[in-house]
Amino acid sequence: MFDSKLFEKVSINVSPEVANSFDDLDRDEYFANGIRKRRFCQLKMSHSGDAWNFEKLPLRPFLQPKLNNPLAGGILRYFRGIKVDVSPFLKKAVDVIKPDACIDWQINVHQYRVVAKPGIPGSPVPEGPHRDGANYILMICVRRNNVVGGETTLFDKNKSIVFRETLQEGEAIIIDDTRLFHDASQVLVQDSGSDGHRDIFAIGFIEWSRGKYGPEWERTHTGQVADPALIKHD
User: Fold this and answer.
1) How many CA atoms lie within 13 A of 226 on its CB side?
2) Molecular function (GO) terms listed (predicted)?
3) Where are the domains of the chain?
4) How far apart are the C-alpha atoms of 92 and 75, rounded to whole Å?
5) What pTM value is reported for the model?
6) 161 touches 37 (CB < 8 A)
7) Three-state SS sequence of the chain
8) Contact in structure between 211 and 217 (CB atoms under 8 Å)
9) Pairing verdict, β 35-48 and 105-116
10) Stretch 192-207: mean pLDDT, rounded?
11) pLDDT given for residue 190 in this prediction
């Protein structure tokens, strides 16, 4: 189990196919603090025999309680699904975390591009230091193009800094989201003659029994369920 650690930094190989998939993200219409593009998917992770299995779940909107996200919590946010295979990243994370194999897990995968323009910084985390409401989080820096900044900071429950570093391409960090808060600083263009961007995956691991997927979760926190007409299938 990951219980003895608060976080661990790791290296992750990202294929050119996965890196290039960030060029096909939609603008996040729920994000008012600059330009962010994204896709989203969810999986169910179960252990059988001596291996973890990953089942991609039907696409539904993303929902966070306002407790975790005061800016965009409590609403159903509809995004197109992630196309690329993320299971190699999940396998890397579970090798480190060693999650309880006797239970199933929900995996929320967010694929982000934060865009910076000359004179207009990109804001990766507009809500500031926060928790995602997961058990564990894996954050992967895939690509940094013409940017500076985007420094990742982790805080303990007393808001004391326990980690502060700018993740480079191929670097990742696994976090105990039940015991740490996380934040990221603004992204600025390095060469003012062109735009820049920072591409990341943010992946949450949640005990399945906590029930954060499906109509009942949506109804409890919004009073409504997903509208099939708004689900953005490719």
Assistant:
1) 19
2) dioxygenase activity
3) 7-219
4) 32
5) 0.94
6) no
7) CCCCCCEEEEECCCCHHHHHHHHHCEECCCCCCCEEEEEEEEEEEEEECCEEEEEECCCCCECCCCCCCCCCCCCCECCCECCCCCHHHHHHHHHHHCCCCCCCEEEEEEEEEEEEECCECECCCCCCCECCCCCEEEEEEEEEECEEECCEEEECCCCCEEEEECCCCCEEEEEECCCCEEEECCEEECCCCCCEEEEEEEEEEEEHHHCCCCHHHHHHHHCCCCCHHHCCCC
8) yes
9) antiparallel
10) 96
11) 95
Token digits for 197? 């961007």
Where is average pLDDT lowest: 32-41, 165-174, 210-219? 32-41
Question: How many C-beta neighbours within 10 Å does residue 39 have?
Answer: 23
- CA separation for the pair 80, 98 (Å, rounded): 30
Q: What would the pLDDT profile of 161-197 be if each residue is shown by its tens digit?
A: 999 999 999 999 999 999 999 999 999 999 988 999 9
Give strand pairing partners of 112.
Answer: 38, 200
Report how far residue 123's alpha carbon sits from residue 136's, in angstroms, rounded to the nearest whole number: 23
Q: Which CATH architecture has domain 7-219?
A: Sandwich (2.60)
113-123 tens-digit pLDDT: 999 999 999 98
Instruction: List the structure tokens of 193.
Output: 């003659």
Q: Look at the block and give the residue holding tokens 């191929």.
A: 170
Residues of the chain with pLDDT > 90, as a percent, come to 78
